Amino acid sequence: MSDLTRALWRDLLRRPGQVLSVVVVVALGVALFASSFDAFLNLTASYEQIYREQRLADLTAIGGPSEEIAATGGTVAGVEATAVRTVADVPLEFRPGHTLLGRAIGMPPDGRPAVNGLIIVDGETLDPARSDAVVVERRTAEHWGLGPGDAVRIATPAGPQDLQVIGIAVSPEYLWLARSRQELLVLPDDFGVIFAPEALVGGLAADARRSEALFRLAEDAPPGALERLEEVVTAAGAVDTFTIDEQPSNAALQEDVSGFAELSVMFPALFLAAAAFATYVMLGRMVAAQQPNIGTLRAFGFTGRAILVRYALIGIVLGSVGGLVGVVGGALLAEVVTRLYTGVLGIPAAVVEARPTTIGAGLATGVFTGFIAAVFPARQASRISPASAMRGPLPPGHGGRSLLERVFPPLGRLPVRWLAAIRGLGRARRRSLATVAGVVMATMLVLVSWGMVDTVQILLEQQFVRIQRNDAVLLVGGRSVAAVGDDVRSESGVAAVEAALIVPVAIVAADGSYSTTLTALQPGSTMHELVGPGGATLAVPTDGLVVGSSLRDLLDLQAGATVGVDVAGIGRVDSVPVVGFVDEPLGTFAYTSLTYAASLAGGGAPSSTDGSDLANALYVRYDPGVDRAVMRSSLSRVEGVGAYVDSRGLYELAQSFMGLFYAFIGVMIVLGGVLAFALIYNTMSANVTERSAELAVLRTLGLSRRAIGGLVTGQNLLLTGVGLVPGLLAGWAMAAVFMASFSSDMFTFDLRVRPTTFLFTALAILVVGALSQIPALRAVSRLDLGRIVRDRSF
Amino acid sequence: MTATESPPIPSPSRPGPVIRMESVHKTFGSGDLAVHALRGADLAIDPGQFVVVLGPSGSGKTTLINLIGGIEPATSGRIVVHEVDVTALEERGLTDYRRAQVGFVFQFFNLIPTLTARENVSLVGELVGADGAAAARTLEQVGLGDKADRFPSSLSGGEQQRVAIARALVKRPTVLLLDEPTGSLDLETGRQVLGVLHSAARSFGSTVLLVTHNSAIARMADRVVHLHSGRVVEDRLQPVPLDASELQW
Predict the structure, then answer these.
(1) Does A414 touch chain B (CB under 8 A)?
(2) pLDDT at residue B200 is higher than 90
């Protein structure tokens, strides 16, 4: 190592706090990148592995002549396997007395379908000799404590039938247990899945079952094979189709995983930009302070290039160290996240890899960050002329009234010490800018995170408090809804009951079709509020449908358009008007009145009935304070109640998922604090180091430590305040983009940020800004006045 | 004394010295690396005297005024300024002492670059509760009344040093301590600054202690103290001091 390089490093090591802050921020940025990117790759690979091994359908065709559809589709180039099955949503009892609307999926007699296979994790698969044997989906079995040998009761047209559990399985279709794309959040108390012999499922109630043709493409399927297949099966009569990307469980998981992909770009970029700023500030001040030394070296014959290389090297080494720590930490974090996720999802073999590309990219990112940050100060150093050696230290800077004083002249009457603080902001513009930029970035990070919490909380409240105003939904079978409704109404604790029709439908438009649920409500329903765009309450339509806003884009619909509606058990009705749209955070559903549903049942002709005879469900609201478990038990016993869906329980489930979300957001907010701390600390340290003589002189003039601390703190809090406004605006904009990227027909995340969140974010950043000054203020209080005024000037 | 109280003006009739140093030692570092800057310095300076401390580099000149000014602690010995035992003061007391009794002027001016000349002076004036016009009056006294609203970067070196003198004098200090105040000025500017200093200090009644290695400046002093290797080797009164304008170096 040359003496010049050694001198530079010694100078650097005299600033351990600043060096550490740069390394920590680089490491955090790289670790965030490496962990989220590798978690994204690991989880994607884990999902793809199980999909490949179990041959998850690339395309599922619902309805129509499934055998024919499968045969026709099977001829499309690239199709590797096809299967036909029946799926029925029927009442199931996993525990005596607890009926839920579960799902029975038809399987070949040997339990080994060509598409959508199962991983048996306990017991065995279906046995051709056992027509009453079933395999239970893992999560369902865990919730109900089922194992081989236990019994499950299923509702058949002939009455309840007991089935024996012979195996527990992980299904690639239900890694995330969802009833449909519209109902991604379901309680295991309300939904469970069994895999039963096809003969059994095919014999279940006709209005509860649908046939499906499944298609798996070969790995080397030609480009466009999926689109071609979709066209062929639609032409062959399929009512609706969904691809592997649209499959509910996979779509939910992909939505989640894509969050990691986005995290791997946005948050690391913030940290690395901050690290670059911190390095830039530190090296910039070093170069300024060492100008005479650099000039002397140049006078001695060192080339500008030699000076440039040495200063640039500092940034590169700092970036490399941060990058190295980051990739190691990131790899460990990625493994933890991957194992956590795959463990929760029950994926037997998680793919966990330390990818050279991620390591390389992480290191390169760290090095690049350091280099970019160092190159400008290094160039500045290389351009210092030998004459600088003769000029002594840099001039103290030009005075002038601050912009604030020019805009608000009365500020000029402030006490002089405050004027000094205000004008000091413009004295080292780049340093001030770096502090402001750091504050902006930290504010963005905190507000984006906090905004996500607000959005989810507000939208959940909207969904489960404003929109879904019922406590339970009872699915009725075997008796008239009116009679069951009377019995339910007479139960103690029931405040109100409304009849409704809830049926699966496919909405067909010129641009495609969309499978969802149609709910027909009583006019003036108090159980489900229809909330339109802008928050207005819509009346229950009597002349058409209102549908979820996502269908505007998905099916290119406008209010007043007409669609075809394929209603399970009724058939296809064309030219149904769409009279409006609803903004519902969860799912994309269709709504109408029971009266209009009656006209649909009549093939579109006006109906003379109020449609109550069509109803198949009851919305129930309880008296305040009743025990929901008791209500569930008593209402489930009412004759004709086929299944019970706990609406409030869903809210609690959603809130329980928020726990993990809060933990994640908490980490992000803490990281935002670390970012702000590191940056403000770095610029503060540079500030105090550079101004040590000035501050010392103020002490000799009689300013107390406290007064000087106040001066420095005021100046920095002022800078923090300057950064807060653009930070809050940019954070809000970024949060909106971020939330929009998560929106789909499954979730609608319009950004909602509470006004108090802006306030608390600002306060949090101000507190961090104040805390980050403590080390610098301690340095101020330790100033060796004698040495400073003896050794140098400014 | 609080910041709002006016500093006491030394009374010419006050008996005894305003600065008294008794066997003062100052050592930097320890062991083999110890540097003995002062080795038992004794000194007594009367109110209103203009004292020049001479000595070669490393003789302890700057340390002497740093100790008197309370910005460095003595290793041993006693320093009493205006009946205040500086060596017994804690941090808070030292701050109050500096604020009330001491004015500093450094070789490199050390003005706050973002404040005008008037504001640099007002900064100290506000500290001691001086009235708003005090800064302007003091600048007038150092001949800078017309440049009060200039920032340091637009002032010459001599003008900056005069602002520094005004800043030190605005609080009417008991003692004015100057460390090589002409060290970075040319002869003519140096003479102007010294002239201003001398007359202003006189009018404020401040005792002046000026350290320099420039022996020519000693000729304008009432008293000349020579330091060598941390000891006072000569201390003499000068019956007929020269006017600053007569100095040559």
Answers:
(1) no
(2) no
